[in-house]
């Protein structure tokens, strides 16, 4: 029997955008647009009737915006949501990432021109994103997270984690790579890291062009450590979270300083997780920790193996907590991951490892 097409519901207050999206998605034989809505209220009314596999929604809409729609969908009809938005400015992008926090799976840039020709340029990428999201089935967990976020007004936030006191300084580095589902996983992991963490944390996140600063701004508002883009020629500092810049491969020079290399893809990506992991293995060796999180494809697996061979510690996110188990699964199958952990277990594991390593290095 032929496989049923992926059923997509489009939500956007722009009639032109809806027309263009329908047009370009109709080119994919395995995708069927089953409904269009101009705001969240219309979308909620349509949901039981059209039963979509994936919802594509904008943020800015009258009556009910994309964030409100996401919260209600994840409570009543949980399913994958792709945010298609022009909002890449800092003030708007933080709200876009709040949609991810509330249960949306991924973000995708809407062409600012609104012209059909520009939509055509991103057609294949959009189709591939929808195909990936149609296989995501972690709705129950996302629903619980959404309910918790909605109850924050009656929930007393816990005190910040205690300051992490480094016993013996040692030049270690933590490197993290992620793709689809990465922003949510990064939030869970990085917000557990306390003030005074005695190592730099260097992250590579596959994300659509224009959304990196929004991601950094969003995480910076939640984390106990400063979050910034890695600047070429600067030395990574302990207690700081760095992200690889857009369209550059992030490595380290012989002195351990950040170094950008040519903008060519490795494992299909620039920046590539594998490139940064391999650089950490080369410069930091056994003092490097590699963490590979949720994502489609295989980027990072070869790099994680390089860290393991250099004597470093390697961790892969487990299947149960990964939105997409592609990248971690490849690393696990090739034997690159020494430890396979749930996302909420990774930060405590890393802190315990660093504390144990530093304690054992003290000579009495």
Automatic annotation (TrEMBL):
Top EC class for this record: hydrolase
Cellular compartments per GO CC: cytoplasm
Regions crossing the membrane: none
InterPro entries: CheB-like (IPR008248), CheB_C (IPR035909), CheY-like_superfamily (IPR011006), Sig_transdc_resp-reg_Me-estase (IPR000673), Sig_transdc_resp-reg_receiver (IPR001789)
Location(s), subcellular: Cytoplasm
Gene Ontology molecular function terms on file: methyltransferase activity; phosphorelay response regulator activity; protein-glutamate methylesterase activity; protein-glutamine glutaminase activity
Modified how: Phosphorylated by CheA. Phosphorylation of the N-terminal regulatory domain activates the methylesterase activity.
Main location: cytoplasm
E.C. no: 3.1.1.61, 3.5.1.44
GO term, biological process aspect, one: methylation
SMART domains: REC
Identification of the protein by name: Protein-glutamate methylesterase/protein-glutamine glutaminase
Organism (species): Pseudanabaena cinerea FACHB-1277
């Amino acid at each position: 029997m032929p496989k049923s097409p992926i059923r997509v519901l489009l939500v956007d207050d722009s009639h032109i955008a809806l027309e263009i999206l329908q047009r370009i998605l109709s080119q994919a034989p395995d995708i069927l647009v089953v409904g269009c809505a101009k705001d969240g209220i219309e979308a909620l009314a349509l949901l039981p009737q059209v039963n979509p596999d994936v919802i594509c929604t904008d943020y800015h809409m009258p009556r009910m915006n994309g964030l409100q729609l996401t919260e209600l969908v994840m409570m009543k009809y949980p399913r994958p949501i792709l945010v298609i938005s022009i909002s890449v400015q800092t003030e708007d992008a933080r709200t876009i990432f709040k949609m991810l926090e509330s249960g949306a799976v991924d973000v995708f840039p809407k062409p600012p021109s609104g012209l059909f020709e520009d939509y055509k340029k991103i057609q294949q990428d959009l189709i591939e994103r929808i195909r990936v999201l149609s296989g995501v089935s972690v709705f129950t967990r996302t629903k619980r997270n959404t309910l918790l976020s909605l109850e924050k007004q009656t929930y007393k936030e816990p005190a910040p984690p205690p300051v992490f006191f480094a016993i013996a300084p040692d030049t270690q580095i933590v490197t993290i790579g992620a793709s689809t589902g990465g922003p949510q996983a990064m939030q869970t992991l990085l917000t557990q890291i306390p003030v005074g963490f005695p190592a730099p944390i260097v992250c590579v996140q596959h994300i659509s062009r224009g959304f990196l600063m929004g991601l950094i701004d969003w995480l910076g508002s939640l984390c106990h450590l400063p979050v910034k883009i890695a600047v070429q020629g600067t030395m990574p500092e302990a207690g700081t979270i760095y992200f690889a810049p857009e369209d550059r491969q992030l490595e380290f020079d012989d002195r351990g300083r950040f170094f950008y290399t040519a903008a060519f893809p490795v494992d299909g990506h620039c920046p590539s997780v594998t490139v940064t992991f391999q650089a950490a293995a080369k410069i930091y060796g056994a003092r490097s920790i590699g963490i590979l999180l949720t994502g489609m494809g295989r980027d990072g697996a070869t790099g994680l193996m390089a860290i393991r061979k250099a004597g470093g510690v390697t961790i892969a996110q487990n299947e149960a907590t990964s939105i997409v188990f592609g990248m971690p699964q490849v690393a696990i199958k090739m034997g690159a991951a020494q430890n396979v952990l749930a996302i909420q277990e990774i930060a405590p594991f890393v802190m315990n490892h660093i504390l144990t390593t530093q304690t054992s290095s003290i000579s009495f």
